[in-house]
Amino acid sequence: MKTHARTHEDPMGRATPARRVADVAAERIEKLIVEGILKVGQALPSERRLTEKLGVSRTALREGMKLLRARGVIDTVHGKGSFVANLTEQAQITPMMHLLASQPRTIYDLFEVRGMLEAEAARLAARRGTEADFILITRRYEEMIAPATQDLPPEARARLDHAFHRAICEASHNPILVNTLQSLTDLLLSSVFASVNNLYHRAPLKKQIDRQHARLYNAVTGRLPEQAHKAASEHLRNVIEYLHEIEAEEQRLVRATLRLEGWK
């Protein structure tokens, strides 16, 4: 009697050879990373906890970890354990990223991109977010609006603002969307810094931004997808308008000063 290797169907319905248990263990750890449960730089749980969580043997887990190390997905430090590797690390900034970062006008382009991506992320977060997601979003929101933040430098306040928006994005449970925004972190932080540095010290504008953040927070955690999409979109569109108004105001001031000094 002939024996045949076990097969299973891949997502396209094609029969493939049964996978080794090491492949299964590696795939399940990768799934935790893609879904944002294990984050870059985070230490992996103990071997015992992983075998329980993944439903594999210690031997399979160890072999799976070897595969992940070979792929550059995890790093292992002797005496400290294994950590999720920086999967998007670049040895140096690309020429294109340098050009974009060096041109002040690209700030407006960045806000347009944020408006498109973050509005959809907010919609998905309101629809798919779990209670754990909402707890994290609430923490980031409360950190951002805490009275003590008023005394922080603009860079620190920008990071708190960015962390709130990032928490909403992660709650979308769309790994492609999350990783797209993650790959733009430095550029996105520059747009948040521009907002904080130019708007937050203007009390009327800061008050409006606080209201917009509150609407976004309430819509997402209240599971109101369309309202969340609208709140995120309007917030970023309004920030663009505020920055344009300030720019125009500064240009008017320069022209008036030149006239006062006798320039034509």
Question: What does this protein structure show overall?
Answer:
The protein is mainly alpha-helical. It folds into two domains: 15-84, Arc Repressor Mutant, subunit A; 95-260, Up-down Bundle (Four Helix Bundle (Hemerythrin (Met), subunit A)), CATH 1.20.120.530. The protein is built from eleven helices and four strands, in the order E-E-H-H-H-E-E-H-H-H-H-H-H-H-H. Strand 1 (7-9) and strand 2 form a beta hairpin. Helix 6 (131-145) packs antiparallel against helix 10 (203-221) and helix 7 packs across helix 9 (185-199). The protein is elongated, with a radius of gyration of 24 Å.
N- to C-terminal distance: 100 Å
Helix vs. strand class: mainly alpha
Low-confidence regions:
1-9, 11-18, 90-100
Helical segment count:
11
Strand content: 5-15%
The level-1 CATH class of the largest domain: Mainly Alpha
Q: How is the CATH topology of the largest domain named?
A: Four Helix Bundle (Hemerythrin (Met), subunit A)
Shape descriptor: elongated
The radius of gyration computed from the alpha-carbon positions, rounded to a whole number of angstroms, is 24 Å
Total number of β-strand segments? Answer: 4
The CATH architecture of the largest domain can be named as: Up-down Bundle
**Largest β sheet strand count, sense and barrel closure:** 2 strands, antiparallel
Mean pLDDT: 81
Number of domains: 2
**Helix/strand order, N-terminal first:** EEHHHEEHHHHHHHH
Proportion of residues in helical segments: 55-70%
